[in-house]
Amino acid sequence: MDQLKLAAFDAEDLAVVSAHVQDAVLKVGDIAFIPKEKRFAGVINRFVWEKQPEGNARKKNWERRRSGFHFDRVLAVRSTGIDRSRPDAVLDLLAIGFEASDEPAGTITLIFAGGGAIALDVECIEAAVRDLGPAWATQCCPEHSLDEKIA
């Protein structure tokens, strides 16, 4: 499978990126805001949702890939439920959303399991995610209850 390389310039594009990074795991220390560059960036271990085993082959054929991501034109960053003093703490990314304020400006929100979130105030949507290397096997496939709600 070719390596993933996606860019987002509107809410529809961002929804595609969100689907591909759902259930990615990362450490708190693997993300950073660079105010002078107006960039929020990091690395994740994303679950390879686009390569699902066929039929009943869902045994242990899942994969993860190391990927880099960034959001540009970021004016401010706020977080809740994330302890920046614990750089080795692991976060599980559930979704990325966007709420427009004064279009094309708005807030991009990274929503994590356990109630954590990072809000990025942006001039406009300008984001990218790209795989950095080969996949590796994982024996765990993320599962979600239909009752789970994203705040």
From TrEMBL:
InterPro entries: DUF2948. Pfam families: DUF2948. It comes from the Bacteria. This is DUF2948 family protein.
